[in-house]
Amino acid sequence: MEEGSIFWSNLSVTVGTNVLVQPHSGLARAGRCLAVMGPSGAGKSLLLHSLAGLAPANARVSGTVCDGSGNCRRWGSEMAPKAAMPKAPAGPARSTPPPDAPEETGDDYDMPVIVKVRPDDQLDLSPEELEKEVPPRVLYPLNPRAPHNTTQFSFKEKCFKTDEQVDQVVMHFSMDGGILLKDSPEAQDQDEVLDKKQQEQTEKDSQEAIDEDFDPPENEKEIPKKNPLRNQFNFSERAAQTKNHLLRDRSWTTQPPPTTRNYGTVTQWEIFDQYMADIEAAKEKEKEEKTKSKISYDDLTDAKKKKGDTDPTYSENMKLSIKIMERMVNQNAENEVYHDFKFWEDRSDEFRDGEGTLLPLWRFSSEKAKKKQVTCIKWNPRYNDLCAVGFGSYDFMRQGTGVICCYSLKNTRFPEYVFNTDAGVCCLDWHPAHPAVLAVGLYDGTVLVYDVRAKTKKPIYQSTVRTNKHTDPVWEVRWNDDESAGAMNFYSISSDGRVSNWFLLKNKLESEEVMELKLISAAAGEDETTLAGLAGGLCFDFRGGKENHLFLVGTEEGRIHKCSKAFSGQYLETYEGHTMAVYTVRWNPFHDKIFISGSADWTVKLWNHESRQAILSFDLAQAIGDVAWAPYSSTTFAAITSEGAGGSTSGVVHLYDLHVDRNNRICEQKVVKRAKLTHVAFSSSEPIIIVGDDRGGVNTLKLSPNLRAGVVRTEDTDPNLTDWDLQIQKMEHLMEMVTETRPA
After folding, report:
1. Strand 461-462 to strand 688-693: parallel, antiparallel, or no bridges (unpaired)?
2. Does 46 fall in a domain?
3. Which domain holds residue 51?
4. Is residue 60 part of a domain?
5. Which of 101, 116, 131 finishes a domain?
6. Strand, helix or coil at 290?
7. Per-block mean pLDDT, blocks of 10 residues, the chain (744 long)
């Protein structure tokens, strides 16, 4: 090496077409030279460029150049004269190369120089982009559209199961090819068809050909026929045929396995039902496991039941015998009371001018009805000794459960039947044709139907919100005598202003609204477009006889409305005579034009439904609790007041006979002390009445002869007239007398 040389390492230059030149490692002290090679397609020559002032003037440069495709060649040249080159910086001569310089091998040629060529349109990426990781593109053998929760019904296990084996194959393209194998039967059939068509076409062309002479084509050369060379003296032909393999068809017939055909439908509700059945089965299984170690009550009573089937002590005949024995003991213990009930007559009635008295007989009571009020009393239409009594409360702040007790005159100590209700009982009524069926109305608006013969104490029918039950207390119920509807039905009235008809169907109780009790304003000049509310209904009664479609309704406003089943949208007539709530309204059992009403305004009024004015009015000086017609006389009725005269707390029974005296009562008697009377009912077969009070007691009173006087026949009486006709005549005679004496 010459003095003043400079060592360069790791040089790279980009010129024109981006040729990268790596310096060789053979020159340690000489100046580095770069070889620049242009595109080979352009035919450019190699150029030598010396780095300015970095190499001696007479330095020899050689090297190897390789292009991007791997083609290399060696080259060498002399640098420019020394005078043209800038001098190396002055300094002491360095005879030793630097530590990192490669050793000199004495070879005149440098190490190979690697040149990498890249095209002009190559993308230039920044270092950040080069370092960024590119996510690999991997094909997964999974079908993204394949279902993951396929459920099938297993007919073997009789349940739904999840199918975990899902087909992951996806068909992107399918095309049936038209290429056939030459040796296949299909290809042979195709060749036969083509040969047949070609033969037919040839025959057709030969038939249509015209006999003309055509010159052979010029380019066509006659091919000479080659005659086979045969030895005419020694010639023989032999043919051989190889043996073909015999083809045999063999078939076997196997007996197919037995198959069954299973089919079914799968819907959401069926799946839901199946799951619910599984849940119920699991719950039952848990209950069985819990009760395995326990002894059930049925197991303990099973022996008793079996014993009752065979032992006469627990038989039905024994129960009936005990019941009869109890009645006999009770009648013997109360022999005097039963004797008075049957034979007592008040001899003092002979000396009274139409007046009479009441004899107390029994007082029915029950521990279950203690501290409850008697809210309704009803005699059974067939069994004259049986009456039903409902217990509840008229006080809004003291509402609770209710009780129904069925008392019999044959056993006055204990009720024959007892039924408990969730709310207080307000009314009840026996069915006229089915004496064991009892309809009940409760304080919460519910109506019930009981069968007293049933062993269970639950109602056989009950209204609910779905059946459009009443929203206020049901104050009265009444069975419909007309069975033209086909099903048993009854009517009910409530404070919510509705009269409903309830039908007893096979498995449910349905209602139909008969009428809405609209308010009628008496103010003159009131706008008709004013919204009117509903009047609260407290009582009603249906007319007997032929015109049984008419019925009366008493309201809280003191009005009485005459309505019809056929005209449910309007009132036929309105009677305004009371100033306060009407508690009771009753048709006369003999005369179909007369009815009576009792109100909280202390009055009892007698009406003719053809007139809007009351015929007679009776002021009892106390609020009227109940009014009832006597079943033996068309002019006799009874009324009860909550308190007696003078402010005493004793309940009083008032009896009127309008045929005897239409102004004064024929009997006024205190029945109970320190209690208020609530309801009264006449017996249809015995000369007694039953009165209920607000302390849960039911009192039985016998009428004296003057109070139960019937029709008296004289010599002038027409013998063809019945007692019923005579009762009607007696009421009509009273109406004539009242009409004559009424001021114009």
Report:
1. unpaired
2. yes
3. 20-116
4. yes
5. 116
6. helix
7. 36 38 39 40 37 41 51 47 40 45 50 74 85 79 81 89 83 80 87 91 78 55 61 69 79 84 84 91 86 53 52 81 90 89 85 86 88 92 92 88 92 90 93 91 93 88 88 92 77 91 88 86 50 81 81 91 83 89 92 91 90 89 90 91 63 89 88 88 91 91 87 77 86 84 64
